[in-house]
Amino acid sequence: MASKAEILGRVRVAVSASPLHFRVPARLAAQLDRGDAIEVELPSDEKFMVRFMAGGITFAEGELCADSGRLAALITRVGPARFGEEQGRCRISRKQGNPR
Amino acid sequence: MNVETNSDRAAASAAERVYDLCHPVIRHARRRALEEIHSAVATRWSELLADTLPEGRAIVFEGIGIETFKEFTEFASAGARVSNFELDLTGAGAFLVVDGALLRTLVDARIGAVSVSDTPDGPMRPFTRLESMIVRELQTALVETLGEIYRARGLGAPASLHHGERLSDNLLLSPDDRMVLFRFGPGRGARGRAITVGAKVEIVDTIEESSRYGRAPASPRTAKRAAALPVGVDLVLGSWNAPLEDLATLRPGDLIVLPEGDDAWLASGTVELRRVRVTVSGRRMIIAPMEGSGDGVQG
Fold it and tell me: For chain B, first and last CA: distance in Å?
């Protein structure tokens, strides 16, 4: 009989990562033309947070950062999401023409 | 013992019609394409008959209707001539009916006689043997012109053409078949119907939607209200398979490098809507669509 550790090592789950503080308004996403972009700006005291989900459940959160040019997340909390945390105060706007 | 009367059967029949879920549906773009095609047919027929139509008259496309074959045959005018055929692409039964009064006008013009067919309420002279041959020739020319346009627009060409006087001669259609009807009038205030083309409603599915006519534009009011709906989509920064052990041993301070780099996608539920590239700079994040990711939707 397989041990608990063996089972945990064998079973794989689909994990996804999404920003914690905002959802992009569907209207804004639909309006995006070539060269446009969506700009999200956080209040001065906040950082972009990422939630990690498996099977629709948030199991960890972390701060979004750049690691050698790749996006990465530094884990800050492990466990289910707390209710109401996803309401951010960020400003989401459409920038016409590529602002980069 | 239950006795079913005629009125019971009539009531049952009416109830069946009310709850019939198989009524045909024609999407707006296809309807516009059909209207465009048959307006072109009317123009070509007017050119074909220019020498024989009364001064200033033309064949005008009036509109589209849907009826059962039985309903149409009940109201087909007396003296009309019928061309039955099938469309070779789909094998769908079809017909072209030319009104008797119009035929009398065309035949009289062809043989130089004074036409009295503009008084359609009066009795119509039957066609002589020679006149009947002219009628056949006209019917064939009308079907051939229709076929040229149908073929060009992917509806198929008429095949197994058979002229006659009765719609019921069409062996490809049964009374309950749903027909899409294209009605043509004699134009300029003239009374009556000139020509009707009918085909099994299935031909609508074969039509290429006109690129000029997309979906009906939503009213500005509806569009504004829809745009105001608070619907959001998720920005997904990456997705991968991980062993449960990794998740179980995850601790604050660990670093997870997202496998997609700066690639990400907008998603609604599990449906990927659009690929994007994400750049983070301090408190600012830029989400830019990737080339060629326009309307791609993946499950």
Answer: 57
